[in-house]
Amino acid sequence: MAGRVPPADDVALFKAAVEDARPLPEHGKVEPVLPRVSPIPRQRIRDEQQALADSLSDHIAWEDAMETGEELVFLRTGLRRDTLKKLRRGHWVLQAELDLHGLVSVEARQEVNAFIAGCSKRGLRCVRIIHGKGLRSKNREPVLRTKVKNWLMQKDEVLAFCQARAVDGGSGAVVVLLKSS
User: Fold this and answer.
1) pLDDT tens readout for residues 76-107
2) In Å, how far are 85, 105, 118 from 79, measured between CA atoms?
3) Do the domain assignments include residue 23?
4) Which DSSP category does 5 fall into?
5) pLDDT tens-digit readout, 131-177
6) Are 54 and 113 in contact (CB under 8 A)?
7) H or E element: which one contains 154?
8) CA-CA-CA-CA torsion for 73, 77, 81, 85, nearest 10 degrees?
9) Domain Smr spans what residues (predicted)?
């Protein structure tokens, strides 16, 4: 049907139908003014928040929870022992800190999760988490101390951690070495 010429009477009929038509005055191209909204990946945000909440548990294997004294110490398998020595002596500069004072376990776990994830994203290497000495807790025991230790051991981003030096919080804080990005 392409290239077919319409009959003369169809052309005449069309011309007769549009003979009174006048072109509209030109105002330029009109675009609707709609605010551009950035897409928000709501489901991904919810998934990430849930993953953060689920990624750390209060439970850890019995053999992993054994300590050989009062000091909190952890070194990921395959790392040199002098890494821990350097961490204890303050070889790396503390780049960020998280203070858990006044938080209950559930809140503290969420904060530790978000803090470690955020530090890893920003490429931070050495951070401090202040869990407190437990002086104001029930039975005057450091409730968060062991929990923080267990949570950190479960995080792949954590290479090592140890009790902070006295000037950095002593037994009320832990210094954490994170993977470099």
Assistant:
1) 988 888 888 889 888 889 999 999 988 888 99
2) 12, 30, 23
3) no
4) P
5) 988 766 666 666 788 899 999 999 999 999 999 988 888 888 999 99
6) no
7) helix 143-154
8) -30
9) 98-179
Q: 98-132 burial, b if ≥16 CB within 10 A, otherwise e?
A: bebeebeeeebbeebbebbbebbeeebbbbbbbbb
Rounded-to-integer distance, Cα 181 and Cα 178, Å: 9
Q: CB–CB of 100/109 below 8 Å?
A: no
The secondary structure element, H or E, covering residue 22 is: none
Task: Give the number of other CB atoms < 10 A from CB of residue 86.
Answer: 15
Residue 44, pLDDT above cutoff 90: no
Q: Which two tokens stand for residue 21?
A: 């038509």
- Pairing of the two strands 73-75 and 158-163: antiparallel
Q: What backbone phi and psi angles, to 5 degrees, belong to 51? A: -65, -40
**Joined tokens for residue 87:** 């961490």
The enclosing domain of 132 has a CATH number of: 3.30.1370.110
Q: How many domains does the chain have?
A: 1
148 falls within a domain = yes
Domain that holds residue 104: 72-178
Residue 142 within any structural domain of the chain: yes
